[in-house]
Design goal:
Helices cover about 60% and strands about 10% of the residues. Strands 1-8-7-6-5-4-3-2 form an eight-stranded parallel sheet. It has one domain (about 5-205, about 270-315, about 350-380): TIM Barrel (Alpha-Beta Barrel), CATH 3.20.20. The chain is built from 17 helices and eight strands. It is an alpha/beta fold. The longest helix is centred in the last third of the chain and has 35 residues, at about 345-380.
Length: about 375
């Protein structure tokens, strides 16, 4: 009997694992997750590497070896550790990549979050990381800031796989998909093979509800009428999924457009929507909420370890996004309309989430460099 982890594939969704570490790779656990549990990709970010490197001694021998080879700079050491992990992950996922003809089997590595507002520096680092890893099933993660969009377009035009990340607003998602289409058109015009480049748009979910929950709590404390309170409470655990449903509808419209049909005729692949941040922040919510409710064709859900296990044991599998058709979208838009009617500027909220998301990843990046420097110094200290 198959598990929910496998069953989702029947509805066109791939589950990726939102974690990587040296132990996960060398213990054979990632290979087991791929072969037995149907994991079809892996995502990483600075916070994940900070946890993996700072939280264990697994990287100590590699750090000591790199220092012995004359590598003293913390960022150089970190990059070497991250690149090796990503290479190992790509090798484990390579059979999936080959079996799906490049539709799945990717491992993501993020450019430095400090470059999120610098197009040219993002391009330089993305190309450098692409060459350093040297695997066709690598995806370079680029934050979808205003400055990130032209970088995404150019990387696609060069045939480099891109994971456009830190998407919170539908408008930004649409900008990313336009950048993807423009990049594909350039690639085709230059004689490139559009069928060999892949991309996902990482749309963040649970952070939306976490912010709405805080805002509702503040508004409830100040609200005077029972009707207003009831309408505010009606937003709880609803807005993130509604926002995601709206984004998915935009994706479907793009796939039905003549512009996409022309690209598809050249073998171009859809830029799948990837649901990120799908672990619930509120312990009162079902652990699998943001997996159960976001299953649908041409989607990816990158799942944290705890949520992955919860979904394996108690997940509900159905075509949640497409099964009810237009009714799902209308319900979602009613929720989003209620947000604005209650005086909450969703654009301000999502703009703030993007800014804070970049800042949080910068903090994690700085912390992992600090952890590497500390380990370097401890491991090379004279006895």
């Amino acid at each position: 009997m198959t598990s929910p982890l496998i069953e989702v594939q029947k509805h066109g969704q791939s589950l990726w694992y939102d974690y990587i570490s040296r132990d996960l790779l060398l213990s054979g656990e990632l290979r087991r997750l791929v072969e037995e549990d149907g994991v079809r990709g892996v995502t990483s970010n600075p916070a994940i590497f900070e946890k993996a490197i700072a939280g264990s001694s697994d990287y100590d021998p590699a750090i000591q070896s790199l220092v012995g080879q004359g590598q003293a700079d913390a960022q150089t050491i970190y990059e070497a550790l991250a690149v090796q992990d990503i290479q190992l992950g790509c090798d484990v996922l390579r059979p999936v990549y080959d079996a799906t003809d490049g539709a799945d089997g990717y491992v993501s590595l993020e450019v430095s979050p400090h470059l999120a507002y610098d197009t040219e520096a993002t391009l330089d680092e993305a190309r450098h990381l692409w060459d350093s890893v040297g695997r066709p099933n690598l995806m370079i993660k680029v934050p979808a800031t205003t400055e990130g969009l032209p970088a995404i377009e150019q990387l696609i035009a060069e045939g480099i796989n891109v994971n456009a990340t830190l998407l919170f607003a539908v408008g930004y998602y649409e900008g990313v998909h336009q950048a993807y289409r423009r990049g594909l058109a350039q690639l085709i015009e230059n004689g490139g093979d559009a069928s060999r480049v892949a991309s996902v748009a990482s749309f963040f979910v649970s952070r939306i509800d976490a912010v709405i929950e805080k805002r509702v709590a503040t508004e409830l404390a100040e609200s005077a009428t029972p009707d207003h309170k009831a309408r505010l409470e009606g937003l709880l655990a609803k807005v993130a999924i509604a926002n995601a449903v709206d984004a998915y509808a935009s994706f479907q419209r793009d796939l039905a457009s003549p512009e996409w049909a022309e690209l598809a005729a050249h073998g171009a692949r859809p830029q799948r929507v990837l649901w990120a941040s799908t672990g619930t922040k509120n312990p009162d919510l079902p652990a699998t909420l943001y997996v159960d409710e976001l299953i649908g064709p041409d989607t990816v859900n990158t799942v944290p370890a705890a949520t992955f296990e919860a979904f394996k044991n108690q997940g509900t599998v159905a075509d949640a996004l497409g099964g009810r058709g237009e009714a799902t979208l209308q319900e979602a838009r009613a929720v989003m309309t209620a947000v604005e009617e209650l005086g909450i500027s969703f654009q301000e909220l999502t703009d703030d989430l993007l800014t804070k998301g970049c800042a949080l990843f910068c903090d994690a990046f700085d912390q992992v460099l600090g952890a590497v420097a500390e380990k370097r110094d401890a491991l090379t200290k004279a006895p």
